[in-house]
Amino acid sequence: MILRGGIYQMRIWEQLVRDQPDLQRLPPIVLIVIHHGPTRWTAATSFEDLIEVAEPMRSALLPYTPRFRMMLVELTPERTSELLSQAMTALGKVAMWCISVAGNDARLEQEIGRIAGALDAVLAHENAVAALPALLRYLLTTHPRVGAPKIVDLLETAANPGAKRVVMDVLDVFRQEGRVEGRVEGRVEGRVEGQARMLVKLLAARFGSVPAAMKARIDAAKEAELSRWALRVLKAPTLEAVLDEPTRKSAKAGRTTAHKRARST
Fold first, then answer.
1. Is residue 265 part of a domain?
2. What is the model's pLDDT at position 15?
3. Range 232-260 average pLDDT
4. What is the largest CA-CA distance in the chain?
């Protein structure tokens, strides 16, 4: 992992230099690895630990060897509480907890009360309708045996009843989706239908009534399109802007104009 991390760093720096040929200094890159395996981390966390050189040559050669460390974050059960208290944001706390209980159904049910305060803060935030689906998808993927209805019930039990109505609508969609599919795996078609229903609810919550033509377009969309549109709900100025892609069209128009100029020249 430490070797792979070094390769990632070099690729990033290489791309920066390629994009900015006049660059004189490189920005720092901090390599962070999040480990949530069943046992503690035992592999190297410093690159020089991989270099096999015996003393006394080791001391002489190490100054000419790349030297960097990675920041290791272990999400083993005994460290979860400590990490949650150190997390900077409510969403960070909830995300860290979700990773720490991934695949462990018993811990999911027993420890969800630990993030009640952070969960309330996430649900009360203006970006809740964007954050909540991502968290739910992760929990559904890592706990398929628990299923959507029970996961939603656990979240509702842990959260403050005063959560925004639109958040409860999102939870309702996931609960219904879970009942229709029976499980997260296998029924891709049912999952896409659930995403489409949820997107329509989110659009209605922000912009009001959704035209039938737009609903039909959403129903016919693929999963990748639905995910992309859902991310635009909070920032798009109008209902139409959520489904349109002005950036892509503008870029295409720019390329077409440039191509025409090149041909004329």
1. no
2. 94
3. 64
4. 77
